Automatic annotation (TrEMBL):
Highest taxon, organism lineage: Bacteria
Protein name stated in the entry: Uncharacterized protein
């Protein structure tokens, strides 16, 4: 992404609902590391929340399900340019973020299935869906991914017509 691109950002984050952070943190960190190396990222690759840091990436205003009792839950985040603030995102940026979020969700589906865990997803402080035992709920599947894909298809068609 062009370093001069000035646009508001949001945080797409996830929380693994477990009280046994130590059991899953190393594998999740390695999965994120491999995912980070697999592609170029629009802003930066996803990262784990850092419980050692005052600014750990976990928004203080976020309310996490009661299924976890950790003050610093197991999870992480991906910074994305906001589609809700500022001017409309260029198609290439929006498509790039869609691919990044999709890849992150797919990796977390496998992690959830392997360990029988629930994972919640947030955009900023808003809960937008979850994965349970490797399966996306309707909100994540239809409300986020399918709707985003539909919007990208329209954007692509409009872009192609503008150059026709």
């Amino acid at each position: 992404m062009d370093a001069d691109f000035n646009h508001p950002t949001d945080q797409f984050s996830f929380v693994v609902l477990t009280t046994d952070v130590q059991a899953f943190q190393p594998e999740l960190a390695e999965s994120l590391r491999l995912l980070a190396q697999s592609r170029q990222w629009v802003i930066a690759p996803p990262a784990l929340f850092d419980p050692e840091s005052e600014d750990d990436g976990f928004p203080a205003e976020k309310t996490v399900s009661d299924a976890t009792e950790n003050s610093h839950p197991l999870g992480g985040y991906l910074d994305v340019y906001s589609a809700l603030q500022g001017p409309p995102l260029p198609y290439e940026v929006d498509q790039g973020h869609f691919e990044e979020v999709s890849a992150l969700i797919q990796m977390l589906e496998r992690f959830s299935m392997k360990h029988g865990l629930e994972i919640e997803f947030y955009l900023g402080p808003e809960l937008i869906g979850s994965i349970v035992w490797g399966l996306q709920d309707e909100s994540l599947r239809e409300g986020l991914l399918e709707e985003w894909s539909r919007i990208l298809k329209v954007k692509k068609e409009e872009k192609e017509q503008a150059f026709a």
